[in-house]
Design goal:
By secondary structure, the chain is mostly helical. It has seven helices and no strands.
């Protein structure tokens, strides 16, 4: 079986595990076939792992996997920053300020590498998450 076939089969197994709510199986699945996989396939892998980590309550690991997804080729700093700010906003709407702060911290980390990014929305959301503004 080619590496491409192996990585596709691994993704199919991971999707089945998610459907069966076997989140630990997803995060512990063998990823060796993804070393030379396409950027699209890697994004799928990181997305599935991020979802599984979120489902088992490991937000920090979820963010790490999602950050890997956003760091693959083809995703700009602007897209990464904007996506993380949007996710943080969703967590704030669900009254989860600590989770929002984690995502906002990552968005600021990306912005440190790209001075053209506007961080005003992220700064405003961080103030809300800290309880300094409503």
């Amino acid at each position: 079986m080619s590496e491409r076939d192996e990585s596709a089969e691994t993704l199919r197994r991971m999707v089945r595990m998610l459907q069966q709510q076997n989140y630990i199986g997803v995060v512990e699945s063998d990823q060796s076939t993804f070393f030379d996989a396409s950027e699209f396939t890697k994004r799928q892998l990181f997305g599935l792992r991020a979802l599984a980590y979120d489902k088992i309550g490991s937000r920090k690991r979820c963010i790490e996997e999602y950050t890997k997804l956003l760091a693959t080729n083809g995703v700009s700093d602007f897209e990464s920053h904007t996506t993380m700010v949007e996710i943080a906003e969703q967590y704030l709407q669900c009254d989860e300020p600590d989770a929002a702060k984690l995502w906002l911290a990552k968005s600021f980390e990306i912005a440190r590498h790209d001075a053209t990014l506007d961080t005003s929305r992220a700064t405003h959301l961080m103030q809300i998450a800290d309880g300094r503004e409503t």
